[in-house]
Structure formats: C-alpha cells, structure tokens
Amino acid sequence: QVQLVESGGGLVQAGGSLRLSCVASGSIFSINAMVWYRRAPGNQREVVAGITSGGRTNYADSVKGRFTISRDNAKNTVYLQMNALKPEDTAVYYCNAPRVFSDDGPRDYWGQGIQVTVSS
Questions:
Q1: Residue 54 carries which DSSP code?
Q2: Quick one: which of 20, 58, 74, 119 could link to 8 by a disulfide (CB 3.0–4.6 Å)?
Q3: For position 21, what pLDDT does the model report?
Q4: Cα–Cα distance between 118 and 120 in angstroms, integer?
Q5: Distance between CA atoms of 74 and 105, rounded to whole angstroms?
Q6: pLDDT tens, position by position, for the chain (120 residues)?
Q7: Nearest of 115, 78, 67 to residue 100 by alpha carbon
C-alpha cells in the first residue's frame, strides 16, 4: 500500500519561510509527476507547483519567484520551499502523485494534507 505523508507545515510570520516535504512509501517502482496543491478556507483546491520525474517544474503565478519545488527520486520525496510567505498563502497543502507505479498498478495517490498558517 502506497502512502504519501507531508511534513514541515506550521505557523510563520509574513515574510518567513517554510519547507514542506512529502515522502511516498510502499512497494513503489516509479513515480511520474509530483504536485503540490493547496486549499484555503472558502476556496477551491488549486495547484501550487508540479515537477516531472525529469525535474521539469511549473508554478502557479501567485507563487512564482517565492516557492521552489524539488524532488529526490531515490527517496521518493518531493519538497516545497516557500519563501517570502504572505497571509494569503495560508491553506492546507496537499501532496499528490497522479501516477505511481507499484504492486497495485498505476494509481493516483494523495497525502492527508498539512496546515500552513501565515500571520500578518
């Protein structure tokens, strides 16, 4: 059974930084893209950043220049370095791996979510 577990969230003042991590565990053969989403109170879930297995990245306009996504394929881990945080970055952040190849075949997996709160 594949699981995605996020860590690194918390409370930070505006202008501060946090680094989120998401580790995929289980009988994994390979993982294609990995994506960070977030959902703020009263809002729909939105894509924050994504990264392919080859390292190609893309970002939401709202976080470009402030957030950096990276991954360690050997550790099945994706990171989200968040700098210059703003109160509007407050949300629950979710890790997603839309196509994980494991003993269960290719499947889409999600983490449980982790709270990031930015105070003004």
A1: T
A2: 20
A3: 98
A4: 7
A5: 20
A6: 899 999 999 999 999 999 999 999 999 999 999 999 999 999 999 999 999 999 999 999 999 999 999 999 999 999 999 999 999 999 999 999 999 999 988 999 999 999 999 999
A7: 78
Q: How many CB atoms lie within 10 A of CB 26?
A: 14
Give the span between the Cα atoms of 115 and 29, in whole angstroms.
29
Query: Regarding beta strands 46-51 and 34-39, do their DSSP bridges make them parallel or antiparallel, or are they unpaired?
Result: antiparallel
Q: What is the pLDDT of residue 10?
A: 98
The separation between CA 38 and the C-alpha centre of its own chain, rounded to angstroms, equals 8
Residue 6 is predicted with a pLDDT of 98
Candidates 73, 52, 78, 68; CA nearest to 60 is: 68
